[in-house]
Amino acid sequence: MYPEAAKHSVEPALTVTEQDTYLYQSGWYRRVIGPFFGSDDPAFFVSVDRISSSLYAKKKRREKMADKKMVEAITSMEEDFAQWYTDVVKKAELCDYTSVKGCMVIKPAGYAIWELIQKELDARFKAVGVQNVYLPMFIPESLLDKEKDHVEGFAPEVAWVTQGGLNELPERLCVRPTSETLFCDFYKNDIHSYRDLPKVYNQWCSVVRWEKETRPFLRSREFLWQEGHTAHATAEESQERTLQMLNVYAKFLEEVLAIPAIKGQKTEKEKFAGAVATYTVEALMHDGKALQSGTSHNFGDGFAKAFGIQFADKDNTLKYVHQTSWGMTTRLIGALIMVHGDNEGLVIPPRVAPIQICIVPVMQKKEGVLDKAYELRDRLAKNFRVKVDDSDKTPGFKFAEAEMRGYPIRVEIGPKDIEAGKCVICRRDTREKTEVALEDLETKVAEILETMQKEMLERARAHRDSHTYVAHNMEEFEQIFNEKSGFVKAMWCGCQECEDKIKEKLAVTSRCMPFEQEQIADTCVCCGKPAKKMVYWGRAY
Fold this sequence. Notes:
Blueprint: E1 20-25, E2 28-33, H1 53-72, H2 81-91, E3 95-97, E4 104-106, H3 108-127, E5 131-132, E6 138-140, H4 141-144, H5 148-154, E7 159-164, E8 167-175, H6 180-190, E9 199-208, E10 222-232, H7 235-255, E11 262-265, E12 277-284, E13 290-300, H8 302-307, E14 310-312, E15 318-320, E16 322-329, H9 331-340, E17 357-361, H10 369-380, E18 386-388, H11 395-405, E19 409-413, H12 415-420, E20 422-427, E21 433-437, H13 441-466, E22 468-470, H14 474-483, E23 487-492, H15 496-506, E24 509-514, E25 533-538
Parallel strand pairs: 5-9, 17-18, 17-19, 22-23
Antiparallel strand pairs: 1-2, 3-4, 6-8, 7-8, 9-10, 10-16, 11-12, 11-24, 12-13, 13-16, 14-15, 19-20, 20-21, 23-25, 24-25
Helix pairs in contact: 1-11, 3-7
């Protein structure tokens, strides 16, 4: 039953398959059907390539554990969504905490995503006539006080500088929570005639808002953003620009981040402090909560009157300018995580992925494997963002890490693949594997990335639509929010009292009055009075 082996002072070498394991004891081999990774019985130890085979078994167990380690470190989103989000952010090394409470270090992997967001948005801005500028980060208190509604809206979140060097400042300086007042002060001295208009400016910068509760990317005391500030001769031009930039945001969300957006107007209660009207793009996260992903504000001439921004029109009369403001922030990274991520980590849409392709050489110590991996990298790098994982980690660990970091495509190549003139492509979102001839690699990669971008948007839209409900009365409204998560479409009378009542009772806010209105019912979901608008309601970050 047991084939006899020659008596050796050391254990003879054996080749072990996935199906069979040979045990060696006192000069005898024992064949075990199926894979074997050791036993508590001291009589059993694995004989593979060399002596000390029990160590080999332990090594294999360690490798298997290491391969799973990164995945196991993530809490399931079904178990605890908030913890899942934190785990993904940390394990994917997007950011880290600092000694400054409420602030974060954005690490290379996270900042690379922001750079691509910035690059794409900036190109879209420039295509519609936007120019970049930069203004100071400090605002004198007297300047901030000029627009009453504005300062009252931001007062609870303002950080103040009271001392410069060793001397107390004669006037407090606000660290910008937003830059409307600075732009107004600038425009007052820069705009004189209708020939100076329009001014269509944007700045990329950081702002500070002293938030009580913080969460990486979603809400921090300092965050990165862009803020556009424009000045126009007429109310019509101002409104046109306000909606134009909102549409830029909506297209960017869908075409680049693969996040479907609901466009609409904020209620009076939810609009920006000092604005005539605020418009928003709202997205739905995987847990059914809403995220305000970008806003565009029409200021009318309110700020202009407060700051004295006038121009000589064509008829030689002095008129006040009409202004807008619009912004997107690093919370888009949080949105990306919560819309597309899964229990293995990040899933990044190809158009905003810093690394689109990760090449994993299998058995890379074999002659020619790494060289072939580098050759493929150089070929693909002409059109894609690509890296080779040539670390000394196991292939299983590399696969897990690639999934954790959300690389859209993983290319696997080993000795047998090279010999056959092929490789294996694995999609991050579906985990679908495809064998591809090396000569067809560029074409196939481009095809998969485009398909992946499209299908990620479709899945996100399907999720949003399947988690959007309709309520005709307060009973239905309460039942939905008590039992489910997502958007609820319901009619509203236009009274803030109803908004306040709904928020107090269910912790639900109006997200927007969509441009595409539906007549769900004739009466307000809260008070029963005649309805004026259909509103998207939801719990939000």
